[in-house]
Structures are given as structure tokens and as C-alpha cells.
Specification:
The complex is a heterodimer of chains A (about 110) and B (about 110).
Chain A: E1 5-7, E2 10-14, E3 19-24, E4 30-38, E5 45-50, E6 56-59, E7 62-67, E8 72-77, E9 86-94, E10 100-102, E11 106-111
Parallel strand pairs in A: 2-11
Antiparallel strand pairs in A: 1-3, 3-8, 4-5, 4-9, 6-7, 7-8, 9-10, 9-11
Chain B: E1 3-7, E2 10-13, E3 19-26, E4 33-38, E5 44-52, E6 55-58, E7 64-70, E8 73-78, E9 87-94, E10 102-104, E11 108-112
Parallel strand pairs in B: 2-11
Antiparallel strand pairs in B: 1-3, 3-8, 4-5, 4-9, 5-6, 7-8, 9-10, 9-11
Chain lengths: ~110, ~110
């Protein structure tokens, strides 16, 4: 059974704080690791997809790293803003098929 | 670019009633299609995926079924809804290029009463 774990479940920070979330996934049969941002009343939107061990991706104040050997990925947000408030989903795609399995997400609340 | 249509947007159905949710995709051909569900307080659960017409893979045992009668049409059905079927249903297509990055439709909010 493929299992993707995310921590923390929720996070409350002040505007300007930097924060990070963790995603753990199976280290075998790895194909790709995805991060999505899901705002309330909208659909999830892709942030990053990473396929190689050691990959680092960056988009503005948000960045992500990948360690496929130990099965974890970090998402970092530098200088959080209220508009960063959302649920951040991690998803794992394995080599065995077309399945992409999502974690339960980290709900971020940024207070102005 | 791809566009995903889902309907209805919201639905309130009594327990034991049937269900049919439809998803259609524009701007691509022979896509991999997926149905996900988010139950209250939980993450996205993969329900079904399809790599072609008439090809359906089920991920969890449940009273739901899926069909793909046309290349860009994906339907989620149930003969008798349960209270536990309430949730937010998302249809998605992977963007291709081998990354399996998902592009999601607007979703259907289903409440079973």
C-alpha cells in the first residue's frame, strides 16, 4: 500500500515568518514527487514536480527539495504572506503504473 | 491547453439514491483521467483512473463505479449512495510529458443526507 505522510497537519504563522513542511513517501519504485497548493473554494494547482534525487525547485518565495533515497521532500516558504494561506499537498507517483497518491496535506494559516 | 468541465457543481442527494457525476476534457486526446475524493477533514483519495476508453482501474472497494464511454469523458456513478459518500469530487487529467502532474477540474460538492 502506497502511503504519503505530511507534517504538520496544520500550521499557524505570522506574516513575515518563514516556514517549512515535510512529506515522506516510499523510497522504492519512485517516479515523481509533486507539490500542490489548494486554496479554499478552488481546485488544487501544481507548484512543483521533481523526479531526481537532490532536485531543488523554486518559484518566487516557495522552494522544494527532494531526497528519494530516504523518501522525503521539504517545501519552504520564505517570508509568509496572508495570500500563502492554503493547503499544501504532496503527491507521489510510482513506477508501477499511472497512480498518483496524495498526502492529507498541511493547512497553512498566515496571520497579518 | 487543457480544460476540464465537471457537473454538477453541487449536489444534495438522499441516502440510497443513485449518482452520476460527469467530467469532460478539452484540449487533449487520449488523456489519463482520474477521479479523486476529499472527505471532510481528509486529503485527496484516488478512487479510479483510466488510461483509455473502457479501461478503468479501481483503487478502493466502495459502492462507486466509473466508466469512460468516450476518450474525453469520465463518469462516476453509484446505484445507492451512502452517507460516507459525501465529499468533494475532483476529476483530473495528467498533463502528459511523463511527469503525471495533475490538472484538476472545478470539482463537485456532494452532500448525502
Amino acid at each position: 500500500i502506497l502511503n504519503v505522510e505530511q507534517s504538520p497537519q496544520s500550521l499557524h504563522v505570522q506574516e513575515g515568518d518563514s516556514t517549512n513542511f515535510t512529506c515522506s513517501f516510499p523510497s522504492s519504485n519512485f517516479y515523481a514527487l509533486h507539490w500542490y497548493r489548494w486554496e479554499t473554494a478552488k481546485s488544487p494547482e501544481a507548484l512543483f514536480v521533481m523526479t531526481l534525487n537532490g532536485d531543488e525547485k523554486k518559484k518566487g518565495r516557495i522552494s522544494a527539495t527532494l531526497n528519494t533515497k530516504e523518501g522525503y521532500s521539504y517545501l519552504y516558504i520564505k517570508g509568509s504572506q496572508p495570500e500563502d494561506s492554503a493547503t499544501y499537498l504532496c503527491a507521489f507517483t510510482n513506477t508501477g503504473g499511472f497512480k498518483t497518491i496524495f498526502g492529507a496535506g498541511t493547512r497553512l494559516f498566515v496571520k497579518a | 491547453s487543457q480544460t476540464i468541465h465537471q457537473w454538477p457543481a453541487t449536489l444534495v442527494q438522499p441516502v440510497g439514491s443513485p449518482l452520476s457525476l460527469e467530467c469532460t476534457v478539452e484540449g487533449t486526446s487520449n488523456p489519463n483521467l482520474y477521479w479523486y475524493r476529499q472527505a471532510a477533514g481528509r486529503g485527496l483519495q484516488l478512487l479510479f483512473y483510466s488510461v483509455g476508453i473502457g479501461q478503468i482501474s479501481s483503487e478502493v472497494p466502495q459502492n462507486l463505479s466509473a466508466s469512460r464511454p468516450q476518450d474525453r469523458q469520465f463518469i462516476l456513478s453509484s446505484k445507492k449512495l451512502l452517507l460516507s459518500d459525501s465529499g468533494f469530487y475532483l476529476c483530473s487529467v495528467d498533463r502528459g510529458g511523463g511527469s503525471y502532474e495533475q490538472y484538476f477540474g472545478p470539482g463537485t460538492r456532494l452532500t448525502v443526507t
